[in-house]
Amino acid sequence: MLRWTIIFLIVAIVAAVFGFGGIAGAAAGIAKILFFVFLVLFVISLISRMTRR
C-alpha cells in the first residue's frame, strides 16, 4: 500500500510540473488517502501484535 502512495505522489509531482493541475490534485488526494489508510492499518497491526504476546 505504501508503494501505491509513492507512485501516486510521483504522478502528482510530474503532472504539476507539466501544468496538469486537475490530475495533480486528484493524484495527490489519492496518495493522501492511501497514506492514511496505510497508517491506520499499521497501527492496528502493531496493537494486535502487542496484545498477542
Automatic annotation (TrEMBL):
Keywords on record: Cell membrane, Membrane, Transmembrane, Transmembrane helix
Protein name: Small integral membrane protein
Residue spans crossing the bilayer: 7-27, 33-51
One of the record's GO cellular component terms: plasma membrane
InterPro entries, per database record: DUF1328 (IPR009760)
UniProt organism field: Galbibacter orientalis DSM 19592
